[in-house]
Each structure stands twice: as structure tokens, then as C-alpha cells.
């Protein structure tokens, strides 16, 4: 069986002011030894359970996300790699990505990660402006980001991605474009550029001064369009709404997810999507899968203690396990495909799901093409760059 592997490392030094993802803040010292030990023990138990369920899965990609995986330290990373290799097969050409924050991406950690087999680094830079970094609550400055990039190159990383955020409080269009020029100057193979989302309940959402300084919708749209133009001119392919890469350097793990391929994930808040197997789940779950469409998804608890208790009680993969019917799979396949530059193969989609998207939405597609938001060419339906700006609305209209 073939599936990409994902490991969620929940620890971070401090919660960023905009972040709504699950993480476990530890303070500057990182996770306490006991806390880290319990996490690693549970992680190995979860791997045991899924190896028993799915066999020795062959993995074309491995992704360490978080949280801040670089905060695990080299000994914990080595233990996780050993556990993975014992139970699963990392293919010889597997892409292995480690997310890292600049302040914890030390030369020693980077050298150890590279020696373990990590061949792609994703640096959470977010901005190269110290004032904006402070406003976001980031635990590093721009100088540390540049130093981490240089250290990664010195450690032998030939595939480095930078994460950046636009639409920040007080940020103008030219300011964002200058950030991109600085990032291009570093020479990364990949850039992820995300528009800031104000998530309810985060500190940023309650900061009236920051909210009043947010750029308006027109400015944010200009940041997206002109930023895309600048990166394309610099040789980066705009291969997904928020992602740009040098030729051949697209993130293979993310592409696997966007193509709807199997993902086996470990750790708190991790989400797996797998084909049917004789998994050790409850009788209700077994009968549901036997009668279902052949794909299941489960989400681990977004709580470190709850996930550990679930896994150590022998119930890995049993919480929130859903069978995905054909209609759900068809909607997801369309949604994910339209996020990418390669778009939706309409004939393959029709063969697999019995849904002829151009025939079902002929009038809507004609309107979208006239508006310059979508293109149907060579059997593929794609959003234009302008269409990506309103992708949620377009995809919602086409998916139902």
C-alpha cells in the first residue's frame, strides 16, 4: 500500500498572535523531557497500530509539520525516523520535509536533520520586517531568518521553502513586494505566500489597533496579483493558490494531498485519509467501511493529553472516523484540483465520479470564462490568477 506520511509535532515556544492551529506552547526552553518522552511513546504506539492495520506502507513523501518540528531536537528526530523506518518504507527518492522556525533551526539541528534523511526544509519566516514580526508575535527577527537560511544551505539543503504572510497590519502593497524581492534575493526553491486570516479567539482578533491598520480588500488583491506577477517574472511557477516553486521544486507532499492521494498521519490534530483496509476498528466502523465508498478519514484529538490517552488505550484511528461517500469525494477532488495550476481533468473526474462538470455547469462556466476567472482548455478546467482571488466562491458554486 502506498501513502504519504505526516507527523505532527505540536510544540512551539509561544503561540503566535494570529495562529488558530493546534499547538502546545512550551516557553523558551522547549518541551520538558517528560512531556517530550510521553509524546514520543504515544507516537510510536500510534505507528504500531497503523502498521498493524495497513501493513508496511510505501511512502513517497514524509512531512513533519506543527507546531515547530525543529523544536523537537536532534535526538527526538532520530528516534522518530528510526520508528518510521522500522514500520514503514520510505521510498529511495522520498521527499522528506521538516518545518522549522528560524530561532530553533540551529546549525547542529539542521546538520542532524540532513544526515537523518530530511532533504527539504520549510522555514517559517512570515516577514522580513522586525516591526511586523513583533506585531505577529513571532519569536525571531529578520536577521535570524536570514541566518537560518544560510545555515540550511551550509548543512547541505538544496531544497528550501520560505513561508510568508501578506495583508499584515500596516503593510502596504510596495512593502509586500519589497519583502518578496528580499526573499527572492535569498534564492529559495519554494515560496508559500498566505493572506492573513483573522481567526476568532486569537490575540490578533482582539487587537483593535491592529485590525484598524489592516490593508483593505483592494490592497490585498493587489498584493496577491502583483506578487504573483513578480514571482513568475523571477522564475517561480504559481502552481497552487498560495504556492510558488522553481521548476521541479513543487512540494511533492502537498501535491499528493491536493491530488487526493492517501495520507497516513500521526500526532495530535493529525488527519489521515486512507483506502479501505481490515483496520482494527469497532464493529460499527468495520461494517460501515465494508458498505462504504472505499475511503475513510479520521482526525486525531487536537489536544496532546487526549491524543496520548486515546493512542495508549489502543484506540488509534477510531476517533472521528468517517467513511467518504462518492459525492463527498467528488466535491473534494474538484475543490483540491481547482486550487492548483494543473486544474481539474474533467474527463477523468467524470469517469471516476460520474459527474460531467462542464455539462452540469455550462452557463456558469461561460460566465466565469467571460469574466476571466476560469479557463476550460485541453480537457482541463483551471482558475486564472484572478480566479484564484475568489476561489472559495467559484469552487463552492461548481461543487454543488
Q: In the CATH scheme, what's the topology name of the largest domain?
A: TIM Barrel
Low-confidence segments: 278-293
Q: How would a crystallographer describe the biggest sheet?
A: 9 strands, mixed
CATH class of the largest domain: Alpha Beta
- Overall mean pLDDT stands at 92
Strand content: 15-25%
The proportion of residues forming helix, as a percent range, comes to 40-55%
Secondary structure tally, helices: 17
Q: Can you say what the CATH homologous superfamily of the largest domain is?
A: Aldolase class I
Strand order of the largest sheet: 9-10-8-7-6-5-4-1-11
Second-tier CATH architecture of the largest domain: Alpha-Beta Barrel
Distance between the termini: 32 Å
Strand tally is: 17
Number of domains: 2
Shape: globular
Based on CA atoms alone, the radius of gyration comes out at 21 Å
Structural class: alpha/beta
3D architecture notes:
Strands 9-10-8-7-6-5-4-1-11 form a nine-stranded mixed sheet, with helices on both faces. Strands 12-13-14 form a three-stranded antiparallel sheet, with helices on one face. Helix 1 (33-54) runs parallel beside helix 2 and helix 2 runs parallel beside helix 3. The protein is 44% helix and 21% strand. It has helices spanning 33-54, 74-87, 107-116, 130-136, 142-154, 173-186, 208-212, 217-233, 252-258, 283-291, 304-312, 326-338, 346-353, 357-360, 362-370, 385-389, 391-399, and strands spanning 4-9, 11-12, 24-25, 58-66, 89-100, 120-126, 160-166, 190-195, 237-240, 243-245, 263-266, 271-275, 295-299, 322-323, 344-345, 374-377, 380-383. It has 400 residues and is of the alpha/beta class.
